[in-house]
Fold this protein.
Amino acid sequence: MKLTVVGSGYVGLVTGSCFSEFGVSVACADSDVDKIEALKRCEIPIYEPGLEDLIRRNVDAGRLSFTSETDSSISESLVVLIAVGTPPAEDGSTDLKYIETVSRQIGRVMDDYKVIVTKSTVPVGTSLKVRSWILEELERRGLSVEFSVVSNPEFLREGAAINDFMRPDRVVIGTEEGDHRSLSIMKDLYRPLFLNETPFVFSDLATSELSKYAANAFLATKISFINELAILCDDVGGDVQSIARAIGLDRRIGKKFLHAGPGYGGSCFPKDTLSVAHFARSLGREFSIVEAVVQVNQRQRKYGFEKIVSALEGELKETTIAVLGLSFKPETDDIRESASMDICRSLIEMGARVRVYDPEAMELAALELPDLILCKDVYDASTGADVLAIVTEWNEFRALDLKKLAACMKRKKIVDLRNIYDAATVRAEGFEYTSMGRP
């Protein structure tokens, strides 16, 4: 079986590389010639632990290739997987222009049976649109070619994507009613996971498409819920971490995604919550919980910023603030919708000098915020700082030398927006310490 993955961004690269590890012949196609040439040299445009080694191994084995000749790659493949971007429009809806472009491209070059798989996160009804776009192009060519449309959403976490693909909690496959041929092909494609007894959910197209939004909206809800509790804890002197443990031990709730912080970010949760809320409104419904989650998340970023302002008694002009962490989460260089970037932007607008350190994201952050002062490590960033703010919980920030930190800083103030330190330990070193929802 030959598989073409159209789109060599985060999802496409991880998905294509992992399928090649299964022994499938995979071509990752993209219209960006420079990106493809870099990938042929194994120059990976994103940071994802283990991805470079995985790509190198499968390129060397001849199972994985990269091409800008998308038409010929589609023609030669039984399965074409669409993994292009689905950016948000201004009204919160999902822009499907790249999905349409690829669908029409498939229709222009296809001359035998193929399974067209939508891997990108798309609103309900997109798979049917993919079918109609392909049919329109086939009709222009005067051809009648059988093909299948399948929905197979990704559930990859940045920073843990390879493990998520190889050992998933579940695989969701949506097909059209009675389409046993494509279902058999998809089962064959995922055969190694069947052998590992991975849970599979087989459904119709609409159910599969909506499942991805449901998962992300629910996880975003858990994050916003614990963040609202953190604010209440600040008001009454409670400990949000103890509350999270107390409710997380209830197996009906679970302990994951109950970590208070400055709000969720990244390429998925912000976009998908807006999209599913917009989709509900288009049906004349209001997804009230998700609408509230979006509002809480925006407020939480402001709340984190205000904690830093409060630590400096409201005076930011001409102060120096050290910010640790710029990516939206650890183990990625992704700064899309990053709470840290929003906070840094607000600090700069208020007249502060912002010295930053992140293990992976500084180059991208500097392109977006040129006024950031990039530093070589934590202690360089802390030099002369009036306050140190921990905004992304990279592991290397969890065991800082507090004495060395104190010697670097102008004032001994720490604002820990991720609650990674024990308050008593930090205060014992003479620091004024503030966290999220803890006394």
Summary: The radius of gyration is 24 Å. The first helix runs from residue 10 to 21.
